[in-house]
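User: Modeling request: complex.
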Amino acid sequence: MSHPGAAVSARSAGARSLIMRTAERLYASRGFADVSIRQIGEAAGQRNKSAVQYHFTGRDELIKAILAEHAAATERHRFAMMSPLGDLAELSLPDQIRCIVLPRIEHHIELGSPSWYGRFLAQVVVEPALREYALEAHLNTPSLRRLYDAIHARQGRGRDPVRGARREAMIRQLVVHMTAELESELAREQPAAGVAAGAWRRLGADLITATCGLIGAMDAEEAASG
Amino acid sequence: MSHPGAAVSARSAGARSLIMRTAERLYASRGFADVSIRQIGEAAGQRNKSAVQYHFTGRDELIKAILAEHAAATERHRFAMMSPLGDLAELSLPDQIRCIVLPRIEHHIELGSPSWYGRFLAQVVVEPALREYALEAHLNTPSLRRLYDAIHARQGRGRDPVRGARREAMIRQLVVHMTAELESELAREQPAAGVAAGAWRRLGADLITATCGLIGAMDAEEAASG
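Assistant: Request completed. Predicted assembly structure:
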């Protein structure tokens, strides 16, 4: 049953989504310092100068909405990957790490090229006022929490919470910033979609290899130091 | 022999340095988006509204000057560490990695608390317009180039330049962003100087362990895949 309200809210959802895509692109390519809320509205073709405020109240809510949308898409990939696996504590370290890394990679392949989210997120996590939003929305979800806990608990290692937090931080920094770095490269080189997907999968494999090596070395050091 | 010109240029150097310290602190704590050149001048106690432009011409030159100063200090530590070591290619991987990581750590211990440079640099490297300055000034110096080349050349491994570049990027991202993360933590917790120095040394040791594990795993994967 179609009614005028439905058309209005579809148009509103369209404008909202368009503003989010535009903001992400402008922030990713020019940084937070060089992009105003008003420029985002204009670049998104909104004639009303307060369109961004109308849809999001302000910059921070706009940024949270972008983070939440990508986090939800990434979580869908992670859920699909984790649900057939059973008890996470029974998985090998590489399989646990795969569940952390590959949903991010799959999300980027799905986004296609050019994407902007990788660079957007890398800027959010170093911006003092925004960092917590990224951690809450995307980098410390319940599924990631369970994975990290399983990694820390395996074989009774990683019991020191400070060392556990450091391992997590290293994995998070590698995933966030290497993703942003590949995204920049692909934006410059503009390869065909298949080549880009291959580059994302290569990054995924490298991150899994590197992370397993990193954790193995930290575990060995912890075991040796008692 | 003292003359009026010397006093003027000492005052000018003092103002220049004060502006740099102030800019670093404001950018680190509030991000590039929330800090104007004029606010930096005011916060540095400059009565002339164009003081920052007078000393640096503009934001980018100010940022380059801050990067160059810290890069020079870090290089002094690296030079002191490397000069007695002889042929870099003869060093073990952990010793090569130590020469990459520890000069950054020593520089932070020397800066004392609170420091701002770690967070400043992390923001610079993700800011599209500034990233290249950081790479040129600080993250790709001749001494680092020699160290990375020695790492790639050892035992004939790491010959694939794409894989070599990825290893380097991972090490760089870990060092830059883990340094910023510890700096934030210390700024929040404000421990005594000795405790802070211990935390920096612990991070240095963890980065060396993690990086050696990461490179070892990437090498093994490369050797296995031919």
